[in-house]
């Protein structure tokens, strides 16, 4: 486990998957990140896919390639590029194994930088292949929700009168139906309730620049303006005390529609040699 620390926060990161595992308030001892085997993850990185592909496959020039849920980088060790008191940079490059399911050369760098009570999580994707690189990128942090779930609220920025989401169908796994529907309440600030997740994950169709989780004694803010969507999730069918706030660039497949990677809806794309950076800024109060 790798650690960065300042006066306000102590942060732990596992080089396996470059996964954020702990954020602790040094003054109060509060742990912000979920750590419980009821969901045995903390903050996985999703690349080069988000959600499930139809039949766990996708197409390149009509040829089938397998792709597991949320891609594969969370299953691999990242190389430490830089490790200072308040900064950590990790890197993963595609290898012979990943080429079997994703026939592209790439590098994904993930950096964690502390500044006061903020943690900047930066992602850098570089296309090292000879073709256009099409991919999704997501970040899946789970935050502790201690006490009553209903005592917490979410505030979405920019404000709007009615939030919308992509309709999700389970068959038995979650896919998009292709429809967009209203959330069952108005406004962009709302109290948490497990029933919000009765239909599964909630991927907001609206562009979200920031979100804040506010509880009775602590809060987490997230700036995700570099990403195209915000996903909200907790385990449906189980009332567990955590909420995931997930920046997405890309979307899960529509049900029963196997996708050509080059045309996959809302994927990002890089030309040969191109580099693109994304930042998710977390503020812990």
Automatic annotation (TrEMBL):
- Which Pfam families does the entry link to? Aldose_epim (PF01263)
User: InterPro entries annotated for this entry?
Assistant: Aldose_1/G6P_1-epimerase, Gal_mutarotase_sf_dom, GH-type_carb-bd, LacX
| Name of the protein | Aldose-1-epimerase
Organism from which the protein derives: Lactococcus lactis subsp. lactis NCDO 2118
């Amino acid at each position: 486990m790798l650690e960065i620390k300042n006066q306000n926060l102590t942060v732990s990161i596992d080089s396996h998957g470059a996964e954020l595992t702990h954020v602790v308030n040094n003054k109060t001892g509060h742990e912000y990140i979920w750590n419980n085997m009821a969901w045995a993850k903390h903050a996985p990185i999703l690349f080069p896919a988000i959600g499930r592909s139809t039949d766990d496959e996708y197409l390149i020039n009509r040829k089938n390639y397998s792709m597991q849920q949320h891609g594969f980088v969370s299953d691999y060790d990242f190389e430490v590029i830089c490790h200072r008191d308040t900064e950590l940079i990790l890197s993963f490059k595609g290898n012979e194994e990943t080429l079997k399911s994703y026939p592209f050369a790439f590098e994904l760098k993930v950096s964690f930088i502390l500044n006061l009570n903020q943690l900047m999580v930066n992602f850098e994707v570089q296309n090292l292949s000879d073709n256009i690189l099409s991919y999704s990128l997501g970040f899946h942090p789970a935050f502790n929700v201690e006490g009553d779930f209903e005592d917490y609220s979410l505030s979405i920025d920019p404000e709007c009168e009615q939030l919308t989401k992509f309709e999700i169908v389970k068959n038995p796994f979650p896919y998009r139906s292709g429809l967009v529907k209203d959330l069952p309440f108005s406004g962009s600030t709302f109290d948490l309730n497990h029933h919000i997740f009765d239909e599964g994950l909630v991927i907001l169709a609206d562009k979200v620049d920031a979100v804040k989780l506010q509880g009775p004694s602590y809060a987490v803010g997230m700036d995700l303006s570099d990403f195209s969507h915000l996903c909200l999730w907790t385990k449906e069918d189980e009332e567990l005390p955590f909420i995931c706030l997930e920046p997405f660039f890309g979307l899960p497949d529509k049900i029963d529609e196997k996708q050509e990677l080059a045309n996959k809806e809302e994927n990002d794309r890089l030309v040969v040699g191109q580099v693109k950076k994304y930042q998710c800024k977390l503020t812990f109060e």
